[in-house]
Amino acid sequence: MLDANFFTDVDFENFRTLLYKESGINFTETNKPILVQRLRVRLQECNVPTAKAYYDIITQNKEELKVFLDAITTNLTWFFRNQPHFDALEKFVLPELMKEKKARNDFTVRIWSAGCSTGEEPYTISMLLAEKLPPPWRAEIVASDLSLKCLMTAKDAFYEKSRISGVPPEYLKKYFDEVEGGFKVKETIKSRIKFDYHNLKNASPWRNFDIVFCRNVLIYFDEIIQREVVNHFWDSMNSKSFLYIGHSESLFGMNTKFEFVKTQWTTLYKKWV
Ligand SMILES: C[S@@+](CC[C@H](N)C(=O)[O-])C[C@H]1O[C@@H](n2cnc3c(N)ncnc32)[C@H](O)[C@@H]1O
In 3D, which of 238, 229, 237 has the Cα closest to residue 256? Predict the structure, then answer.
């Protein structure tokens, strides 16, 4: 049972400072109700009566802090989200990269789905590459998130019927197995994806990506963290590579080294040095 006054203004300041420091996620007065709601659920699950008592727990217990960071993330995603991004991938990004890489005798395209949520984004990319990247080309995909729950769902590769509505019927037939209650992504599509925990606030251990997808993640950060995250991407990317962000996100005014690219399908960014 929660105390009536379980969450005070002081608690809000303490939580928002901690969450910002640990994940970059920026809670303001506008999205405070989301924090309160998720905190309420977690307090009830742990049988802790006040936010202050829970704050003391997460500042001392790294595992519980991870659980709470997971609980405050927003994980909405779907297969083939923003189709123009994938049209540009097929018709502009892949041809450009293949030209560049072939000259270097490099036939592997390395992709990072950063903030992959429950896996729909990396599986969409993997299916498209299975279609559009002929041998001897091969794809390697890293998919990462801060949410361990999401990563477990992604690794499981099972999606209920209601969640695969964005998948074109021919892809569904070719790349999924129908199982009880839904569909499972086939091993050929799954095996090229390495799912891993990574907090985007930290520098990444990975290098040499040709394409980074970080869509609908930057919106949760303020401009300072957005710039940090984008600079980390720069360090993880090849000298000729492309960055996708969400269609409602922008690097405008952020003073990064990425160049803006406008294609007939969508806009994106490139590192071309
Ligand atoms: C709205 S989902 C976007 C999923 C997918 N990229 C898409 O566009 O459909 C945002 C994801 O970003 C993740 N996220 C938020 N902050 C993060 C951080 N600091 N490090 C890594 N992932 C983070 C969340 O856990 C969530 O799964």
Answer: 229
